[in-house]
Amino acid sequence: MKWFKHQSDARNSLKLRKVRRKYGADGYAIYWFCLEAIAYEVDKDNLTFDLKEDAETIGFELCIQEKTVEEIMTFMVSIGLFESSNNVITCLKLAESMDKSMTNSPKMRAWLGERNLPIEPTSVMTLPDNAKTCPELEVEVEVEVEVEVEVEVEKIKKTSRFTPPSLQDVVQYCCERKNYVDPQGFIDHYSASGWMRGKTKIKDWKACVRTWEKNSAAPAQPQERKKPRGFGE
Prior knowledge:
The protein is 49% helix and 4% strand. It is built from 8 helices and 4 strands; from the N terminus they run αααββααααββα. A two-stranded antiparallel sheet has the order 1-2. A two-stranded antiparallel sheet has the order 3-4.
């Protein structure tokens, strides 16, 4: 198969982000190297989607130590980017990205239409014995999904639209602060400017109130009139 499709935002998938965080560019390079190697071998006579290159070959091609390649491949199998059966690495999900426009072979087109042919692994890239089971990693994946949801919620909160306060809101806040800011003057000033401070859109009107508070002095107390000297003495 000369080419295969993948989404342009594939790098943003949770699983690939986990690989990059743990192994950096080495993990990312190995992932796409393996996908390309698997896809290259797919044709009308080979519908197995197995990886023929071993860890030594991949390491040599990418200038990465063989043991590091094995460790990274073990990790990617554990989170579901690849499959491992009888010490054979496969990527059966690659078949999901294929369609009839990618080949002129009648046999391949028929297979793509059916998608139910048996897939039997042939050659092998060996992995350590613990490649199939990694419960610690499974727990990590579940926890990260929850964290990702929380992060997205926080992003939504931070990007929520600013709502100008009402006069009552400002009056109440000024009473809480026990300051001398004129609520109506505050509202009039920022309403006239479109709730902008210079060229910046206001995001926190309470912060603006606190700034006004620093610039608002307490009203002067009336002074007691002094009696003329000698008056009433």
